[in-house]
Amino acid sequence: MDLHFLLASFANLLLSVTYTIISLFCGVYAIKLIDHYLLKKIDIEEELGKNNISVAIFASSLLLFVAIIISFGLRA
Question: Which H, E and C letters describe the chain, residue by residue?
Answer without folding.
Answer: CCHHHHHHHHHHHHHHHHHHHHHHHHHHHHHHHHHHHHCCCCCHHHHHHCCCHHHHHHHHHHHHHHHHHHHHHHHC
